[in-house]
């Protein structure tokens, strides 16, 4: 555990997640309150993701962010167009991808992109439902799985509304950048 913590701290410093402080304090020296406050202020800035200069959310870990409305999202580093998160499937209790769409039970309110390029969101207040999905969306369209009997917990998902989630719909209006402010 100690080694993991040290590696994590080293990574934070190597990625310059902590700002350089304007004043160096010495043991036994006097500390001026203004200098100390300036040092704290230098590290009070946060890393945020922006899309075309517009705030998406504050960076958490591993390319994830939380929007100003409390929804988790992720920035995919593997796609040149900077989509929100990795493309994922929606699942259905029908065999033809109709009815209420579901996603695997999420860890909180989150936003994701499905294979069709539509942005969806889930709510943490929705009670996950256990069922054996019969179809789902994939990169090639709807896939049917009528014989599936393995029950999994799913949460209902909804077509994204930026007024609710604080996250724009795909395609985004420009590149995603990570800035310190």
Report on this structure:
- The protein is of the alpha+beta class and 181 residues long.
- Helices cover 15% and strands 31% of the residues.
- The protein has a domain at 72-180.
- The strands form three sheets. Strands 5, 7, 8, 9, 10 and 13 form a six-stranded mixed sheet that branches. A five-stranded antiparallel sheet has the order 4-3-2-1-14, with no helix packed on it.
- The longest helix is centred in the first third of the chain and has 13 residues, at 2-14.
- It starts with a helix and ends with a strand.
Notable features of this structure?
6-stranded mixed beta sheet, single chain, 5-stranded antiparallel beta sheet, 181 residues, disordered N terminus, 31% strand, 3 helices, alpha+beta
Helix percent reads 10-25%
Strand content: 25-35%
Rg from Cα: 21 Å
Shape: elongated
Task: Round the mean pLDDT to the nearest integer and report it.
Answer: 79
Pattern of helices and strands:
HHEEEEEEEEEEEEEHE
| Ends distance | 31 Å
- Number of helical runs? 3
Q: Which regions contain 5 or more consecutive residues with pLDDT less than 50? A: 1-16
Major sheet summary line: 6 strands, mixed
Give a short overview.
The chain has 181 residues and is an alpha+beta fold. The protein has three helices and 14 strands.
């Amino acid at each position: 555990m100690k080694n993991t913590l040290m590696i994590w701290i080293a990574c934070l410093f190597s990625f310059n997640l902590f700002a350089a402080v304007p004043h160096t304090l010495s043991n036994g020296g006097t500390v001026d309150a203004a200098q100390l406050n300036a040092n704290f202020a230098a590290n009070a800035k946060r890393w945020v993701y922006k899309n075309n200069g517009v705030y998406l959310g504050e960076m958490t870990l591993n390319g994830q962010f939380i929007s100003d409305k409390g929804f988790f999202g992720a920035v995919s580093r593997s796609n040149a167009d900077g989509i929100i998160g990795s493309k994922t499937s929606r699942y259905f209790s029908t065999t033809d991808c109709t009815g209420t769409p579901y996603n695997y039970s999420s860890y909180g309110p989150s936003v994701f992109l499905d294979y069709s390029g539509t942005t969806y969101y889930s709510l943490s207040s929705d009670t996950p439902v256990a069922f054996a999905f019969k179809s789902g969306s994939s990169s090639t369209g709807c896939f049917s799985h009528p014989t599936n009997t393995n029950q999994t917990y799913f949460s209902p998902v909804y077509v994204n509304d930026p007024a609710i989630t604080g996250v724009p719909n795909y395609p985004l209006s420009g590149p995603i950048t990570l800035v310190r402010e």
